Amino acid sequence: MTKAGIYIHIPFCTNKCIYCDYYSIEKREKDMPHFIDMLIREIELTSQDYHEDWTFDSIFFGGGTPSIMKIKWLRMILNTLKTSFDISKVKEITLESNPGETSKQQLSLLRKLGINRLSIGFQSLQPELLTILSRIHNPKDCLNTYKNARDAGFDNINVDMLFNIPGQDFNVWQKDLGKVLNLAPDHISAYSLIIEKNTPLHSLVKNGQIIMPSEKMNLTMFEFVRKYLSSHGYNQYEISNYTIDGMKCLHNLHYWNLDPYLAFGPSAHGYDGHNRWWNISSLDAYIKKLEQNKMPLSGSETLSQIDRFNEIVLNGLRTKDGIQMRKINSFNTKLNQINSAINKWQDQLVITKKSIRIKTNYYKYADEIASDMMLTEPL
User: Fold this and answer.
1) What percent of the chain is predicted at pLDDT more than 70?
2) pLDDT band at 332, cuts 50/70/90?
3) H or E element, residue 54
4) What residues does each domain of the chain span?
């Protein structure tokens, strides 16, 4: 049995954040109904050529801001998935939501629709930091949306938080995490703000208009959240993700475990274990292709053995379970190609017959360790 996920990319946003490099657009609400029709067409066209024996257990609505979609559109998407694929084994349906953009009534309708996991993008609980990030909500919106979601019956809620924000100091970060813990979410994602090229934030930093925190402060904040959440019962099962027992994000596990997944919507990426493909990153081009009953693909690639090996290393080292030896051994290669890296980092690693993983207090070296362990020559 091969477990798999389904990703739906909803590109619409009320406001585009300055740090976001995902494909999203603002002020295009009038195009939503036609987009839904074309998204449904993409799902139906895909199902015609689908011949895999996968067991889907997760659906993830990302974006963009999928929570701004009308309930009837989300119902149409789910009904199309149901008639196109076997989703009877789906355990988790996640919807990303921004604070203040979804009413209590809408949240209740989402829950009744079958969406059972909500991911709320707090990012910060400081008004001035939210302004720097160009977020349009305020701290009160975060708390109200969370409460409304609980009242609506959501018993699986993730809260997204950011550190390494310009103007954010350690005390502010500590205070915000304390407030989040008081809410007792089931899952917390804590990401370091990264400056991505082709974003307004990149230009502002490059021009000296915004000063980022020091690397030392970034690491200090990372180490604090790791220790703080762990001491309060949250399991760090991936470098940036923490959960109480039994509430890991099934969909994200597919990415980290290199399981297959289907993906729909502009810019969405799919994977079948050997091949990766991605859609056009343009709403207009996406719609135009599907109006002609053509798949909206932008490109694809077949992963080489070395690519697959390196992805196993990169993703495995990010997780608590580490690199699974059975996955490495399946490449029929001797581990002496990476032994020098293992020897170099032996004090930071836990090596058993089943796995190679990073000790939790050395996660800050994950990128360096992964880089050293990756192969540069063909297997």
Assistant:
1) 98
2) low
3) strand 54-63
4) 2-256, 305-373
Q: Are 261 and 87 in contact (CB under 8 A)?
A: no
How many Cβ atoms sit within 10 Å of the Cβ of residue 291? Answer: 12
The 10s digit of each residue's pLDDT in 117-126 is 999 999 999 9
Q: Per the structure block, which two tokens stand in for 7?
A: 């990703």
Q: What's the half-sphere exposure (Cβ side, CA atoms, 13 Å) at 263?
A: 24
Long-range contacts of 43-48 (CB under 8 A, 24+ apart): 43/77, 43/80, 43/81, 43/84, 43/264, 44/80, 44/84, 45/290, 45/293, 45/295, 46/84, 46/262, 46/264, 46/295, 47/84, 47/85
> How many beta carbons lie within 10 A of that of residue 44, not counting itself?
13
Contact residues for 216 (Cβ-Cβ < 8 A; gap 6+): none
Taking a C-beta distance cutoff of 8 angstroms, is the pair 369, 356 a contact?
no
| Cis before 153? omega within 30 | no
Distance separating alpha carbons of residues 371 and 251, to the nearest angstrom: 26
What pLDDT score does 25 carry? Answer: 93
Tokens of 16: 């585009």
Tell me the three state secondary structure of residue 360: helix
Model confidence at 336: pLDDT above 80: no
Residue 137 to residues 64, 165, 183, Cα–Cα distance (Å): 15, 16, 18
Mean pLDDT computed over 30-45: 97
Q: Is 136 helix (H, G, I), strand (E, B) or coil?
A: coil
Q: Mean pLDDT across the chain, nearest whole number?
A: 94
Architecture of domain 2-256: Alpha-Beta Barrel (3.20)
